[in-house]
Amino acid sequence: MNDRVAFGAAALQLSLSFESHTSICDPFLQVLPVNAAAVCTLGAPFGSETVCASNSMAAHFDELQFDLGEGPSWAALATRRAVLVDNFPTSRGTTWPALMKASEHSGVHAVYAFPLILGSLEIGAVSLHSNRSGGLSPAQILDAEVLVNLTAVQVLRRSLTFQTLKTNLEDNEGYSRRVVHQATGMVLAQLNLSAADALLIIHGHAFAHGRTVREVASDVVTRRLDFASISES
Q: What is the rounded distance in angstroms from the CA atom of residue 206 to the CA atom of residue 200?
């Protein structure tokens, strides 16, 4: 299969994973030169949890990062940038000393961590692992980032399925719905998203800050909240 056709198929599989209940790790393995992948949420508001791990090596490495509170996934989310470590056993030993020691026999020789971010929401990270030292090409990094963006939507949808949003009695009124629809259109324009993903951002922000969807929508409509400026900060 042509490389771009294979990438398109992987992206489609990932974008439909919530409805089809398929793995969000497998698409990365299909098109990138890595042996394992893990997807996790980190810290507030969704807690630290491995959402998906393609094998025990990736799952164990995620668990070490949770337990120790350090590592490339935490660093990627904190900086909102990819953290690419081509030779993990000898790299950044002073940055993650506890993780380096705990993972000596993990089999991880290279790790590439990408932040899961949607607008203002810092969700978690995708970590890609290789049992050999090496690197990703610039084109492969771009492909990974496209897949990571799709993954962020899937993880947020999954996380909100198991959460309860704050509501009030007015949220069922027609005015409330009109405000939410208007805010959805504004977020759609701000972040160049589909209407469904823009609404997802509003719901996610509401949950993360303990507010109602209507309250967040009202802030968007009155321009007290601009997701484009938040995501650029």
A: 10
> In the block, which residue shows the tokens 């929508």?
217
Q: What is residue 172's DSSP assignment?
A: G
Domain 3-161 in CATH 3.30.450.40: yes
170 has a pLDDT exceeding 80: no
CA-nearest of 121, 155, 175 to 15 is: 155
Q: Are 151 and 127 in contact (CB under 8 A)?
A: no
* Domain spans in the chain, listed from the N-terminal domain onward: 3-161, 169-232
pTM: 0.78
Task: Report the 10 Å Cβ neighbour count for 230.
Answer: 14
Task: Give the relative orientation of helices 174-191 and 195-208 as an angle to the nearest 10 degrees.
Answer: 110
Mean pLDDT of 154-176: 65
Give φ, ψ of 127 to 5 degrees.
Answer: -120, 130
- Cα-based distances in Å from 205 to 84, 111, 186: 29, 30, 15
Q: What confidence tier does 103 reach under pLDDT thresholds 50, 70, 90? A: confident
Q: How confident is the model at residue 54 (pLDDT cuts 50, 70, 90)?
A: very high
CATH number for the domain whose boundaries are 169-232:
1.10.10
Which pLDDT value is given to residue 32?
95
